[in-house]
Amino acid sequence: MTSSFLWPAEDGWPYPDSAAEAIDLDAESDDDLLSLKVPPPHLFDELDPLEQRVIRSHYGLGGTPVRSMAQLHMDLGLSSADLDNVLGSGLAKLRHHLEA
After folding, report:
1. CATH number of the domain encompassing residue 69
2. Is 31 among the domain residues?
């Protein structure tokens, strides 16, 4: 009876199937990763300018550095509740736009 357990020194450890599956990292996969950071320009058309700024800043989209909610609170002078509402309404509009 053959055991399916592999010791750390054995080929295929820790994932026995990893040797059979080759990962193809080509230029297209890099483009896919870059598209996550650069949203389509029309995606933000339905958002208010404040919603656009908060979402782009909080998630670091379009070359904007990532900002925490505390940093945005200080930058924009909004209360935490107002900032949460702006972010929430912007994300809700984006979800609705993506589902349509």
Report:
1. 1.10.10.10
2. no
Residue 18 counted as domain residue: no
pLDDT digits (tens, 9 = 90+) for 48-77: 999 999 999 999 988 889 999 999 999 999
- Mark 10-29 as b/e (b = at least 16 C-beta within 10 Å): eeeeeeeeeeeeeeeeeeee
Long-range CB contacts (within 8 A, 24+) of 51-54:
51/86, 51/87, 51/89, 51/90, 51/93, 52/90, 54/83, 54/86, 54/87, 54/90
What is the enclosing helix (H) or strand (E) of 73? helix 69-76
Q: What angle do CA 58, 62, 68 make, to 5 degrees?
A: 15
Answer for the pair 54, 72: CB distance below 8 angstroms, yes or no: yes
51 lies in some domain: yes
The predicted model scores a pTM of 0.59
* Residue 71, domain extent: 40-99
Domain count, the chain: 1
